[in-house]
Design brief:
Structural class: alpha/beta
CATH class of one domain: Alpha Beta
Strand content: 15-25%
Number of helices: 14
Distance between the termini: 57 Å
CATH superfamily of one domain: Response regulator
Radius of gyration: 24 Å
Mean pLDDT: 89
Shape: elongated
CATH topology of one domain: Rossmann fold
């Protein structure tokens, strides 16, 4: 992989020295090479070197003794302050909370703490969190916000600075994605499983309920798989099968938007049986509630399949058919990537791309239609 044109030199030095400390190259309380020796090794300005050393001091990895030099901090500092910053849209959502649980579970076993930030899908907020914590943590796990298929300035700066980074849940279609670590669910296969199931149920009409812009790769892949399934079953796809819900309730997973879409789905069914693939469980559960309040028989008149398998989906009064993804495993794998990266000194390490399998879980919101 070619060297990156833009690098934050001080961050690169910080990472290298920190890894040397954590791997025991310098003993606890031991003295680091002098500033002149480090300047000669890294061939940078004194300003850049001091910036790197200051970052290590802020992280509790080293201490500076006036007139004596810099020394490895006591182990309680050097090893107790390992932290990963996790930036998600909404930490209290049923989906993101599982990712966070997975990160926390794996990281704590390895002696790492966690800083949690909520971007609410705003690229400016995401960048501010990156800027705030870049010199205080070992790496970042980010569910990235995007705008016109571009990542935030914060995500781009992490890549350019060679800070350990793992993207989760969502990726954009650009070159940076190819060069970055990511852990995502198999969205295309999930969309295919949903479309295949609804087709096999024999609903007279089939549609997909969307609540986010199709610029988002996650949604495009689910739609792609859904279309492929319909093609396999000889069902012509048209844009009229894409039903747009509004997207003004992201903090609750668009549940209210699903609820508000009930009338639109009823019109789409037009008196016949209809199967709907809602691209997220909260959207699907909102739709389920709205349809029930309007007296629609589920799954006899309208069947619903979601995506995610959040805890609410399996409750007895909901029992949602859905495509299950292991969000906790996504978090665990992302934490593993970061912690492995911290332990490696190889600057040319290959980006890891992990696609987590999904599976269909059939419950009570879909059923085979009588012939």
């Amino acid at each position: 992989m070619p060297k990156r044109a833009l690098k934050a030199q001080h961050r690169r030095i910080t990472d290298i020295l920190k890894r040397r400390v954590l791997r025991g190259q310098f003993s606890e309380g031991g003295k680091l090479p002098s500033e002149n020796e480090l300047l000669k090794e890294f061939t940078v300005s004194k300003h850049t070197l001091l910036k790197a050393l200051d970052a290590l001091i802020n992280q509790g990895v080293i201490i500076r003794k006036q007139g004596s030099g810099t020394f490895v901090a006591p182990s309680v500092c050097a090893h107790g302050n390992r932290r990963i910053a996790v930036i998600v849209y909404h930490s209290d959502s049923p989906y993101y909370s599982k990712i966070i649980k997975g990160v926390e579970s794996y990281a704590s076993q390895k002696g790492y703490g966690m800083i949690l930030c909520n971007s609410r899908g705003d690229i400016s907020a995401e960048s501010r969190f990156v800027e705030r914590f870049i010199d205080e943590v070992d790496g970042f796990i980010i569910c990235p916000a995007e705008e016109k298929s571009e990542y935030s300035a914060g995500v781009r700066s992490l890549y350019e600075s060679e800070v350990p980074l793992a993207l989760v849940s969502n990726t954009a279609v650009n070159q940076l994605t190819v060069l970055s670590n990511y852990v995502i669910p198999d969205n295309c296969t999930g969309g295919f499983l949903a479309g295949k199931h609804l087709a096999e149920c024999g609903y007279e009409k089939i549609g997909i309920l969307l609540c986010e812009d199709l610029e988002k790769e996650t949604i495009r892949e689910r739609l792609k798989g859904f279309k492929l399934a319909l093609v396999q079953y000889g069902i012509p796809f048209s844009d009229s099968m894409m039903l747009d819900a509004s997207s003004d309730d992201p903090e609750h997973g668009y549940m209210q938007n699903g609820y508000d879409s009930a009338a639109k789905v009823i019109r789409f069914a037009n008196g016949g049986t209809c199967g709907i693939f809602a691209v997220g469980d909260s959207l699907a559960i909102g739709l389920l509630k709205g349809l029930k309040e309007k007296g629609v028989s589920i799954p006899g008149q309208i069947g619903i399949c979601g995506f995610d398998d959040i805890e609410l989906a399996s409750q007895w009064d909901i029992s949602l058919t859905t495509v299950a993804q292991d969000a906790e495993q996504i978090g665990e794998k992302a934490a593993e990537i970061i912690i492995d990266a911290v332990a490696q000194l190889d600057e040319n390490r290959v980006a890891r791309h992990i696609v987590v399998p999904v599976e269909l879980r059939v419950r009570k919101t879909t059923a085979k239609m009588p012939l």
